[in-house]
Design goal:
CATH superfamily of one domain: SPOUT methyltransferase, trefoil knot domain
Number of helices: 5
Number of strands: 7
Organism: Dongia soli
GO molecular function: methyltransferase activity
InterPro entries: Alpha/beta_knot_MTases, rRNA_Methyltransferase, SpoU_MeTrfase, tRNA_m1G_MTases_N
Radius of gyration: 25 Å
Distance between the termini: 70 Å
Mean pLDDT: 86
Protein name: RNA methyltransferase
Low-confidence stretches: none
Keywords: Methyltransferase, Transferase
CATH architecture of one domain: 3-Layer(aba) Sandwich
Length: 204
């Protein structure tokens, strides 16, 4: 049985990336984690070199937006931008609640997110490591954290090892609007039904 995906959607991208192998790794991982889209801002890369590490050919399976600069960058309505950067006020990733609709953006190799891009972000998160990790590794950690935070998985056992019970299959109920309509129709039928005869037919 295929696991049910979390509600919402997400995209992931990089600001100013210059190493195509890193970009390819990010795209491949995004494809694996069911990203809805990926993007680059102010990036320079060779597509043929990107495909050397993106062996899943993500560009054929999800939209990849290439923005020449920040002024061209845009997101869908309601999508929150989450910057991944080490700043004093950044939220530790394990303590962060992911928005249902989100786009995550990382800085390029040996560089940080530009101040203008940080200003555009709704949230800034950081990965609590001793030092900076490779940008493709950071992207994978963010996507994994989103998956385990929002996905449905069997509870971890108290003891070492895997879960002893299988996650029950999710049951899909009726839409709320249909439930309300059915309840309203049932109430109307009860109100219109004739009152029961309580006179009785007693005999002498």
């Amino acid at each position: 049985m295929e696991r049910q995906l979390p509600r919402g959607y997400f995209g992931i991208g990089v600001d100013g990336i210059s190493k195509p192998m890193n970009l390819g790794a990010i795209l491949r991982t995004a494809h694996a984690f069911h990203a809805s889209f990926a993007f680059t801002i102010n990036a320079e890369f060779d597509t043929d070199l990107v495909l050397q590490s993106d062996t899943s050919v993500a560009i054929n399976n999800m939209p990849v937006h290439v923005y020449p600069d920040l002024s061209e960058f845009s997101l869908p309505v309601g999508c929150r931008l989450v910057g991944v950067e080490i700043t004093e006020d950044a939220v530790d990733l394990p303590s962060f609640t992911h928005p249902p609709a989100a786009a995550y953006v990382l800085g390029a190799e040996q560089d940080s997110l530009s101040p203008a891009l940080i200003e555009r972000c709704d949230f800034i998160v950081k990965i609590p490591t001793r030092f900076c990790v490779n940008v493709s590794v950071a992207a994978a950690l963010v996507m994994y954290d989103r998956m385990i935070s929002l996905g449905r998985f069997a509870e971890r056992p108290v003891r070492v090892g895997g879960p002893t019970s299988v996650l029950p299959q999710h049951r899909h109920g009726l839409p709320k609007w249909k439930k309300k309509r059915l309840a309203k129709d049932a109430a109307a039928q009860n109100a219109a039904a004739p009152a029961p005869d309580r006179t009785g037919s007693g005999s002498d």
